[in-house]
Structures are given as C-alpha cells and as structure tokens.
Specification:
heterodimer; A: about 425 residues; mainly alpha; Serine Threonine Protein Phosphatase 5, Tetratricopeptide repeat; 3 domains; 18 helices; elongated; B: about 180 residues; alpha+beta; Protein Transport Mog1p, Chain A; seven-stranded antiparallel sheet; two-stranded antiparallel ribbon
C-alpha cells in the first residue's frame, strides 16, 4: 500500500534519524578510537588492574552511565529497597567486591513484564520484574545474575566493540533483530545502543557461551545448584511456546532461551567447585519476590497477557494464600478476559478478597460492575455504595456516581 | 570504510522505517466515519487512518480525530475493545495502552472521567508524559464506541502555554464533530 508521509511522520523520521545517527557516531568514534590506539595486549578477557586503562573502555563506561541515567529517569525503575538489597546480597555471594575493587556490580529492577536481564559494561545489571516473577528459587536467580556478572567481568561489551572494528556482526545482529520486531524499535530508543546490544540481541555467540560456562562455575562455587537453574529456562520455553509470546528481548526470545538451556544441559557439571555447603533459602527468596510477583501480574493484565497473568497469580496464591490483592487480581483476570463461564470465578475471587480485607474498595466496585453489566442494578448499587463509602475520593468516583444514577433510574422505572 | 558507510546507511533507513511503523495492525474498515469543522488558521493533514490538524507545528500542538474498527489491535496491549463495553472499560484499555508504551516517559493520568460526546456516552482522559528527548506533553483524549467503531478525539500540546491557548479550539472541533456512515471501500 502506498503511503504518503505526513509532516508529523516526516518530523518523527528526522528525529529518529538524528537519534540513531548520534548513537552511531558515538559508536564509530569508539571504534575509530580503538583503531587509533596503540593497544596491542591480547588478553582482554578478565578484570585486572588495567581496567579503564584505555580510551575506548573509558568512553564505553561513560556512554553506559549516560544511558543508565536516561533509563532510570524515565520512571521504569521498580522501587523496592529491600528487594534491591536482597538481589545485591546474592550478587555479593557470587562475586565478592574484593574480587575486583574497581568494578562494582550492582543490580536494579525494571518494572516491565517482558522477560529480560542485561548488564552494562560498568557493572550495572538490570533485571525485569517479568523475569523475576518466573523464578522459583535463588539458584535460578543466581544463574541469571552470574551470566550477567560474567558479561561485566570478562568485559564482553568492550570485546564486542573491538571485534566490530573488523567484523560488523554485532551491529548487524542488532539491526536484524530491530527490523524483525517493532517493539524493539522503542527499546532501542530508551536503552541506547550499549543497552540495546546487551538487552536485545545479546552478544555474539562466543561471548554468550562464555557467559553461560563461566556463569555456571561462578554460581556453583558460591554454593548454588546449577541443575535447578535449568528449570527456569524449561519453564520459560514452555511459556513462550504455549502462549505464543512475542518478546523483544534476548532472554525472552525463543532462540535466546533455547540456547541458554542447551548450554546448561551440555556443559559438564563443575563438580570440582562443590566446595561450599548448598544454599537453601527458598523461603527468603519467596518472601522477597512476593510483591514483585503481584505487581508483575498487574503488568501482565495491563498488557492483556491473561495466560501469563493467570500463571503468575496462581503462583502468588501458593506463596501468599491469604493475600487479598492476589484474589483481587485473580478476579480482574477473569473479569477482563471475559471468557464464557469466567464471571462466577471472578465473583468468587472478589468475594474472597473482601473476606480477607473487608475494606478492599476496588473489589467492591468490581463486583458492582459485574452486577451492573448483568442488569442486577439493586445488587450493583449496594456494592457501588460500599465502594464509595470505603473510598470517597476514589479517582473513578465520577464513573461510580454515574452507575449509581443509572441504578436509581432503573429502580424507579 | 565502505562497511562503515553501509552501516550508517542501514541505520538511517532503519530510523526512517521506525518512524513509519507507529500504528496497530489493520482489520476491516470501520462502519462509521465523521466530519469536523476545521478552525481558520489550522492546517489539515489527512490520511486514510486519521484526521490531523495543527496550527503551527505538530510538535507544538495537534488535534487528531480517528475512527477505528473495534477489532483493530493496539500496539502494546493485547486487549480489544468490544461493542457494549462500558466507557470506563474502554478508557481502561486506552490507559493500559498508554502505560505500556515505552515511548511515553513518566506518564501521569491526571483524570479519567465519563464524558458525553454529542449524544454518545464516552470517556475523557487527561494525561501528561515526556518523550525520550525530555519534552513534556499534555493530552486531552475523548473516546466512545458506536457499534463496531471506536471514535477518539485528542488534543496534544507541548506545554501548559500551548495547551491553555488552544484547548478552546479543540472544544470547538469537539462541538462540530458529526458521525456519518462510512463510504464503502
């Protein structure tokens, strides 16, 4: 179909071109700087006292910090200091700070239902609520974090950029992935080029294999069980296949997860590293992850990914069997998905939420809405009134007052 | 250097493609269309997906009117509009769509209230957001469903000054809005 570019589209095109050209220029500058330097050391692979000795690595870190600043200022960070503290303790167990004092590994959580984790070269790891919500144990968390830590400690971003000087495979991979998925195009805008490579396309296969292999060693040496980590990728593959999820990120893409699983299955068990007692703190893991799981169910509902939301809420109810919000979210899934026969399930879930928390105004309103739509106006009125009593300044009070007016008119009629 | 230039070219072409790909997938055309009166001094930019008017520049302000089939998918959320849906339910889908959009930074829903557009029950959402380059926008979004068609009229301005100045024009467009039967494709 022939399309005519409107002025706004042209303006957007120009802005997008400027944005990408800026990033590309910077990337080329890094590459050229690398080409011009007298650097000739062959071993780039480990953190050592030469960290940040070279101009291109310093620029890469600087660029990473700029991208992180932009990323964190867009309101996507999931603020939960206790969770962050817990995640950083797991990181410290995997990679003690004394191992490389100049490379501080930190973790932050991004409020995003897509499955992903990625690391910037300066040691900043971001993990999505969507990926955390799929995990069942600290071993699985350790597997993902260890993989990302290895990307940092083995300076994969730097190696990828230097490899690009002679072979543009890395950038081509980003381009190919971008061209295949419209959702990615947005990501590239807010993650920046360094973040996009880390989060979206992953690194070249050789570096990902290294991250898998050394990541397993790292987690095993810290006392985690690499065999348990495999279940995470098993579950992810099953979910991606069953639900036909089209995810934009490396950790959520079918090939990405399949590759992780194959590596974990094929790599020899590093028995020589079983020197520490096994870490068994499932309760602590679940206690820290409960809120994320709940918030991520809400994100899945927002995205209309009801099957994922349903899995999430059932898991949440196993962890928190008397959580009123979990029942409310369960009700929301049934009500909003609107499948035949779901309404009684929705009502039962909302009822349970109210039993657990009689002041749950949103659950009162949801029951009111169901009765209202079914034409049971007297019942609807009762629940709308109780909702407004509980929450007189609710942001949706204008809608509720409108429903109440209709209910009254119906009673008069 | 040839490779470098090829990659620059690819990125520029790609950037162009990115900007063009900003709407959900198409389904069958909507049954109803609309007319509006365009105020003097405003430019109309028409295409087959929506009607778009601006005074100075789309970056400063625009008014957009759209009739889309309810079966048409959104870009971010998989939720779909349905005939018979309450206006609040339709508003929630729009909010979910906005909240899932990675391009809208620091989205704030200032209000979401019922509204009557002509004789149709609908909704009105007022929200602000920033773009990835830091500009802040304020948008007033009206919407309602008529049978298989979702109508929406929105006014976006780059900051409070433009918003205050041009919101009256948007209201005049809203008042002139009329539904007509869509022409057969």
């Amino acid at each position: 179909m022939m399309r005519t570019a409107t002025p706004i589209i042209k303006a957007k095109m120009a802005a997008a071109r400027r944005h990408f050209c800026f990033h590309l220029s910077l990337l080329l500058f890094i590459v050229l700087a690398a080409a011009c330097s007298t650097y000739s050391r062959s071993d780039l692979s480990v953190v050592s006292d030469t960290l940040l000795a070279d101009e291109d690595e310093r620029m890469l870190w600087q660029k990473s910090e700029q991208e992180q600043l932009a990323l964190e200022s867009n309101g996507c960070i999931y603020s939960d200091p206790e969770l962050e503290d817990y995640l950083n303790k797991v990181v410290a167990r995997l990679w003690p700070q004394s191992a490389a004092p100049d490379l501080v590994i930190r973790v932050k959580v991004i409020r995003n239902a897509y499955l992903n984790a990625f690391a910037y070269p300066n040691g900043m790891i971001y993990i999505h609520t969507g990926l955390l919500a799929r995990m069942d144990s600290e071993d699985q968390l350790a597997a993902v974090l260890a993989h990302e830590i290895i990307h940092c400690t083995r300076r994969h971003a730097l190696r990828a950029f230097r490899a690009y000087r002679n072979q543009p495979a890395v950038l081509s991979a980003v381009q190919q992935t971008l061209l295949q998925n419209r959702g990615l195009q947005d990501m590239a805008r807010y993650l920046g080029i360094t973040g996009t490579m880390a989060a979206v396309s992953g690194y070249v296969r050789e570096l990902e294999v290294e991250a898998d292999r050394l990541g397993i060693e790292l987690m095993t040496a810290a006392g985690y069980n690499p065999k348990k980590a495999r279940f995470l990728f098993d579950h992810m593959i099953a979910e991606i296949e069953q639900e036909g999820l089209e995810e934009p990120f490396f950790f959520g893409s079918h090939p990405g997860v399949r590759q992780r699983l194959e590596h974990l299955q094929n790599l020899p068990d590093p028995v020589y590293l079983y020197t520490r007692p096994a870490i068994k703190n499932r309760e602590m893991f679940l206690a820290n992850l409960g809120q994320v799981l709940s918030d991520n169910v809400a994100l899945d509902i927002r995205l209309g990914r009801f099957l994922s939301a349903r899995r999430g809420v059932e898991k949440l109810l196993q962890i928190k069997p008397v959580d009123s919000r979990a029942y409310f979210l369960r009700g929301e899934i049934f009500r909003q998905e609107g499948q035949a026969g779901d309404i009684p399930n929705a009502l039962e879930s909302y009822d349970r939420a109210i039993t657990l928390d009689p002041n749950y105004a949103a659950a009162h309103k949801a029951i009111g809405l169901i009765h209202y739509k079914q034409g049971h106006h007297a019942l609807a009125k009762k629940f709308f009134e109780s909702c407004l009593q509980l929450s007189p300044d609710a942001p949706d009070k204008d809608y509720i007052q409108g429903y109440l007016k209709q209910c009254s008119l119906s009673e008069e009629g | 250097m040839k490779t470098v230039f090829r990659i620059i070219l690819l990125f520029v072409v790609l950037a162009g493609c990115l900007a063009c790909a900003h709407t959900g997938g198409f389904s069958k055309p909507a049954s109803y269309s609309f007319t509006i009166d365009i105020p003097e001094g405003w430019r109309k930019i028409d295409n087959n997906r929506y009607l778009f008017v601006t005074k100075e520049s789309p970056f400063l302000q625009f008014i957009m009117v759209q009739n889309r089939p309810i079966s048409q998918s959104f870009r971010n959320t998989k939720k779909k509009m349905q005939n018979g849906m309450l206006p609040e339910e339709a508003a929630q889908i729009i909010i979910d769509e906005l909240a899932s959009d990675q391009n809208l930074v620091n989205l704030r829903i200032l209000s979401n209230t019922p509204a009557t557009i002509k004789e149709y029950d609908g909704f009105k959402i007022l929200y602000t957001y920033s773009d990835t380059e830091g500009r802040t926008y304020k948008t007033l979004y009206y919407g309602f469903i008529k049978e298989d068609t979702f109508f929406n009229l929105r006014f976006r301005a780059v900051d409070q000054i433009y918003f205050q100045r041009d919101v009256a024009t948007f209201r005049s467009i809203l008042n002139s809005f009329q539904i007509i039967k869509a022409k057969a494709a």
